[in-house]
Design a protein that fits this description.
heterotetramer; A: alpha+beta; Butyryl-Coa Dehydrogenase, subunit A, domain 1; 4-stranded mixed beta sheet; 4-stranded antiparallel beta sheet; 11 helices; 15% strand; B: 377 residues; alpha+beta; Butyryl-CoA Dehydrogenase, subunit A, domain 2; Butyryl-CoA Dehydrogenase, subunit A, domain 3; 3 domains; 3-stranded antiparallel beta sheet; 12 helices; 11 strands; globular
């Protein structure tokens, strides 16, 4: 067990490493999340950075040594993540690998799969993407139409996927496809693949986001031949494995692989921004309405932070034991949506400027952040679907 | 706000867990909704027998040091207890007495403590008399203590003094020699017509206007550490009302969920309509936030004069809990439809509690105003 | 046609009449709406007042002379209503008669029915109540269970109604009951009665409201014998007539009968209340947050008032011609709910006091007003049902 | 607020109805969404041919007196027109030019009017240059006019000057002899590098920072009634942006409704879910309020210096329209789900318009602050 003193020393070590290794401003716009990797230039930069973090030993700290990790307690990774967030270093961008595919393979994969995939995830050599959502089916994974038909030692895959983050750069995809269209329950006909992307019959089409950036693709499968041994588990287990995978999402952020550092803006950043701005001829921070609004957000942020801790004391969660965990996404993504929208209002007339304008506040950081935030209130189950989940699975309210 | 300080978010000891469990079952047993409703018609709003059992269980001594007959578990430990009381609308002079004894602990002389704290642990009832007008944000008082020989004479009235009719002693704020002090007044020294009972929107509670004019005290009745004590009991008052409100919010949620999962309209259980389902989820989320904040405040509060972290925590708790309960109570009426409009529906009890509590020890806006000073400047 | 000058003179005349006839404070609590007539004392007082208003010629001004009206343009009634509202005279409490039964009988009734019923409605001799809602069926009138079976020259009525305003004082009820339980569409089996209340087999049970007041009853029918000629229209037309009746509701307020003056609190009243109150040691009206909130309400109130006028200019409502009328109830009742709730917050600590306390602000007027307001967001279709109506019938969104 | 004054809520003449009809079909014809998107890449953000047709239709002269070549229908008549433009995201220098000509009408000398107003009616483009920093609430300016012989030299820059790149003249606020004045600057007198184009979040609009330093003017270029004109054009600016925003809000609503009535998820049209249906109704209600307020403001505004009713009406209109559109735009993205997250979905155009417009001529909070002074004191 790591002692408090060990961890404290480790924190100082990481902070020191960051100080000496934090990359200089590359002169081009870095992504706020892994969903805005829109050019080779950005890709190369981030690949190099993640490799550096991993080489220094600050990524995959809780993964076994033989797969590129360090076999330490997750506390270390948490601390490394926290310090990197605080220092605002670039993101470790291979998020689907680090947060979903990696934990899944570690947890449920075969030794062969672990050997083959894990180190490349950490080193950023192998970029991973995710193929669950399909055009026209949004949140409803049960309706997946992409077919995978067994053809000798391959599956022939046909169909298309959408919202494939870094689909155009990824080497592997975690793919959910239908192997049995006759299955009695539609969820039973799905299978899960660790599929190579660089095979004939797979093509990608970048999707331009509302911010004007790229980062997603639509991915098309036309008789794409995926080796049969890329299936994970067995035919028909896809749904169960996919659900399992979605569970890692929170874990990933909490440090399972570490250093993922998705866009993190805290109230302190907003207060810093607000300090320079005038309203009605006075400093903004003297405005009573602004003060009241900021405090409302601070209370809400505090409650969000506390919820993370309260989960760890079950006696304090006795009423609805799964409430805080199931409502976590809804609470935090909607908080950030409102907070980031409000950040634009605080900017006054300058809020009309955008990324690329030299006078834009923080280079348009907040404008991007607000708009990109919709990926979190839409993706992975919209806020409306999340509210249903909480209502039904926490409170026991009837389904629609 | 960073991870560096987040370690002290919650402390929850086995002892506290035991108190919580016992509080839950006690309050559920003693305060079913029929009992609550029957006590509305009573003079004092509570059952003397239940109060005696609470004293017996040691609850009135939880926050009192061992040397004065208490169990010295700290004021934070009363939070879970009071939350349970709120959940079952179990109104007793517990909050009033706890605050009055906190005033003595934090502001009183050894003599005050030696005299009063053991009595409180054994069931004596105290209450605070702080409010001069509608404004909990006022920092002055219109009550005065003036010299008369070696005595001091009180002049003025206090509003909304909780459980005044059963109180054995009062902690009264008044001006003395240019400063605001807290002075201890025994119930026995009030004139016979000093109390006038108020008609409260929350019919499960009791409060009086208390006229202290002409009451004689001595300089020894002034709490020597009045300034700190006054500041701290207002913050603790805010926290305890927040805890009680959060409990009532949970009861409101239960009642709403129970109706939404049993009532059928247009051929469907009404809880299946998102227009009811989603706001009910909002109630849960608001309640969860309030609960995180009250337990956090319970963790960082101490017997020392409250530090800035404790002040922030108490204020945040009250700001959140107040608004959460009002939202819940309002929606509870609405979602019960025609039933919600009747006196027989429990939703009105919750809404009235919300309305009665929102300003006690300062409303949300009041606390946010002070938080702004602490967090933004 | 009444000229502007005529109307202006009339306004002065009414104002003068009110000044000389406004009753003194009776020493007991008067109702805020017709739904709080909870004692004989209050009933007698209001009956006398309505009779006086009618005798003076300020009620039913647009109804024909032979039925107790004056046959004038509705503009006169509007003006009389406005002046009475402004002066805060007691309400003309026979609202179901004045606003629903009266207009219906005028519009669709026989001469016999007009002769028999109308004058008594205006003079307040005959109190009317409404029997649509039933226990356990809330907003869903299609589910009405109360049966009326033809038995010679009577109908035998069995069942119960709820939320009968003044059921214990009324002489007549507009009653919706099922005459054909075999009808293919459940709405076709209903019939509409102008039913006498003072017959054997009808009993009422007062309902205590959340405010602690009375005013509603539950009404029980046990083989109650209602004369067959009390049916309005024909058997099976009940649903259509009931829908017609509900249409008068707005018209009634707008002066069809006049002087109904349901609880009207405008922002001015709230500003007046707020003028005396302190917050943080300062006058409340100097508090910047309070000011901002009050202005928000003032804007909303202005928009509500303007909507009433805009309806009259169809060119300005071309987008969604029925939007303002169908959303009117939702907009105004929810505005008042929030405004009245806020009024309590403004009172500070005194908001904890209630009706009957001498220190309660305006005698607890606002406390009652907020709680009673729920009758408007629940009754006549809850706000949630109203939102569905607007979504479906204005915007064309699909049904649930 | 009482019925006594409500008679003047709306005036709407047959002439105005005709303009409205013609505006609706013109904007729909000329500004389908493909055209809007293609103009994003253009330098000036609008089609010169369309602008010429608008001039041809007499729209640039609507608010200009007949003696100066206009049709003298009043500034209120432009509201319906601009609403239609907003509805189809038809961005031209119409708003900028209308405001610049209003400044001349309200503050200019006869000579100014005679020179510029007929040109505007015939298609000359003007714009306002008022903003010194991010604060629309500022009442001072950092631009100065200083004497140099019988000339005056301007010193300073103005931010977010709409359509500056195509403007023939500018109305600039600057300090002169201790007062803030409006001064007329012809585009020809700017230095070649005076304009720097801004990158706007609303890509359908154009604005520049304009550096006026060193520009020479004469005392005759100062508008004699600058004070009133400055006050009034800010209010009229607020109203016109409110009108445009309300139009865009209607477009947003249409787009949402169309998606909700065609997209199927979990086997149902998504518009059948109350979680989407009811907030969409909220958009309608907010838009309806904005529309009532802008048409009312259009009714009470006049060629005279604006009276208090007109000021209240303009401020209410902007406060409401701004917030309505931002709410609608935000929900439009959300309700389109994954599609809403793409650049191809029109929802982003509406949200960006909302973000670009919220502070123009003051945000909701700014206007409520001033309304409080007018309504509460």
């Amino acid at each position: 067990m790591a002692t408090d003193k060990d961890l404290q020393e480790f924190r100082a070590e990481v902070a020191d490493w960051i100080k000496h290794n934090q990359p200089a401003d590359p002169g081009f716009l870095l992504p706020q999340t892994f969903m805005e990797v829109g050019s080779e230039q950005v890709l190369d930069f981030l690949r190099e950075w993640q490799h550096k973090v991993w080489s220094a030993g600050y990524l995959g700290m809780a993964w076994p040594e033989k797969y590129g990790g360090r076999g330490l307690s997750p506390s270390y990774q948490n601390i490394a993540d926290e310090e990197m967030k605080l220092a605002r270093v670039p993101i470790c961008f291979n998020v689907i690998g680090l947060g979903w595919a990696g934990p899944l393979i570690l947890d449920k994969g075969t030794d062969y799969e672990r050997e083959k995939y894990l180190k490349g995830i950490l080193s950023a050599e192998d970029i991973w993407c995710q193929g669950f959502s399909e055009p026209n089916h949004g949140s409803d994974l049960g309706s997946i139409q992409t077919r995978a038909e067994r053809d000798g030692d391959h599956y022939l895959v046909n169909g298309s996927k959408i919202w494939t983050t870094m689909g155009n750069y990824a080497k592997y995809m975690i793919l959910l496809a239908r192997t049995d269209s006759q299955a009695e329950r539609k969820y039973n006909g799905l299978s899960f693949f660790l599929a190579p992307m660089h095979v004939d019959g797979i093509s990608t089409q970048p999707i331009k986001k509302l911010t004007g950036e790229y980062g997603f693709t639509e991915t098309f499968f036309t008789d794409a031949r995926i080796p049969a041994d890329c299936i994970m588990g067995e035919e028909g287990q896809g749904w169960r494995i996919a659900m399992q995978t979605l569970q890692y999402e929170r874990g990933a952020e909490a440090g399972a692989a570490g250093g993922i550092s998705i866009l993190s803006i805290v109230m302190n950043d907003l207060l810093k921004m607000a300090a320079e701005i005038e309203r009605e001829g006075q400093p903004l921070l003297k405005d009573p309405l602004t003060r009241d609004n900021l405090v409302k957000f601070l209370i809400e942020e505090k409650a969000l932070h506390l919820a993370e801790k309260r989960i760890q004391t079950p006696a304090l969660c006795a009423d609805y034991p799964n409430s805080l965990s199931l409502s976590g996404k809804l609470r935090s993504t909607e908080f950030y949506r409102r907070m980031r929208q409000y950040a634009l209002n605080l900017q006054g007339a300058q809020s009309a400027l955008y990324v690329g304008d030299k006078d834009a506040v923080d280079g348009g950081f907040w404008q991007r952040a607000y708009m990109n935030n919709f990926s979190t209130t839409i993706g992975g189950g919209t806020s409306q679907v999340q509210a249903n989940i909480v209502g039904e699975h926490v409170l026991g309210l009837p389904k629609d | 706000m960073t991870s560096r300080t987040a370690n002290m978010a919650f402390a929850f000891t086995d002892e506290q867990a035991m108190i919580l469990d016992s509080a839950k079952s006690f309050c559920a047993d003693k305060s079913d909704i029929g009992t609550v409703r029957s006590l509305i018609a009573s003079d004092n709003g509570y059952n003397q027998q239940v109060w005696s059992e609470m004293v017996e269980l040691g609850w009135t001594g939880i926050a009192i040091p061992e040397q004065y007959g208490g169990s010295e578990l700290g004021i934070g430990s009363t939070v879970a207890l009071i939350e349970s009381m709120g959940r079952h609308l179990l109104s007793t002079p517990y909050i009033a007495t706890t605050l009055a004894s906190q005033a003595i602990m934090r502001g009183g002389s050894d003599q005050h403590k030696t005299h009063w704290l053991p009595q409180v642990a054994e069931g004596s009832i105290g209450t605070l008399a702080l409010l001069d007008n509608e404004d909990w944000g006022a920092i002055t008082t219109s009550c005065n203590l003036s010299e008369s020989g070696d005595k001091l004479i009180l002049e003025g009235s206090k509003l909304l003094v909780s459980d005044a009719a059963v109180a054995d002693f009062f902690i009264v704020s008044a001006n003395h020699n240019g400063a605001q002090v807290l002075v201890l007044v025994a119930a026995s020294s009030l004139s016979p017509d000093a109390l006038s009972r108020k008609v409260l929107i929350d019919e499960t509670k009791r409060a009086c206007t208390v006229n202290f004019s002409g009451v004689e005290v001595t300089p020894n009745d002034i709490l020597p550490q009045s300034e700190t004590a006054l500041r701290d009991i207002k913050l603790i008052g805010a926290l305890l009302i927040a805890a009680e409100s959060t409990g009532t919010c949970a009861a409101t949620l239960d009642t709403v969920v129970s109706y939404l999962t049993s009532r059928i309209q247009f051929g469907r259980l009404i809880g299946s309509y998102q227009a009811l389902k989603h706001p009910t989820v909002d109630i849960l989320i608001q309640m969860d936030s309030a609960r995180s904040l009250i337990y956090h405040a319970a963790t960082v509060i101490s017997v020392q004069p409250l530090d800035q972290d404790a002040e922030i925590a108490c204020r945040m708790a009250k700001a959140q809990a107040t608004e959460a309960l009002l939202f819940a109570g309002d929606r509870a009426i609405q979602f019960h439809g025609g039933m919600g409009f009747t006196y027989d529906c429990d939703a009105q009890l919750f809404l009235r509690r919300a309305l009665g509590s929102q300003h006690q020890y300062g409303d949300a806006q009041h606390h946010r105003l002070h938080l702004a000073g602490l967090l933004l400047d």
